[in-house]
Design goal:
6 strands; single chain; SH3 type barrels
Length: 101
């Protein structure tokens, strides 16, 4: 199941292994972690990487995808859905021509 909020996935982690795709300053720009969630604050997520990288503090804004079992949080899809909802509710941008009588 996909969730629109990262908190929904982090609440279900409870010591389970979680996969993270994180935007960072590496050469590629993305890092993948298989980790256990230590704690989460409103601005950061603290994880313990199981591949030997130790404890990491990741800003929530940099988490692109978080997945625990079948539950996932995809930031890219969630952002597109919010934009789509906003565009549907807004009036279309049309150019109107004035009619000469």
């Amino acid at each position: 199941m996909q969730y629109n909020h990262l908190k929904s996935v982090l609440d279900r982690a409870n010591g389970r292994f979680t996969s993270f795709l994180v935007k960072d300053n590496s050469r590629v720009g993305l890092s993948v972690y298989s980790a256990k969630v230590g704690s989460a604050t409103p601005k950061t997520v603290i994880i313990t990487d199981t591949n030997g990288a130790g404890t990491k503090r990741i800003p929530r804004a940099n988490v692109l995808i978080a997945q625990v079992g079948s539950e996932s949080f995809p930031r890219l899809i969630a952002a597109r859905l919010r934009v789509f909802r906003f565009k549907r509710s807004a009036p279309p941008n049309t150019i109107t021509r004035s009619r000469k009588s």
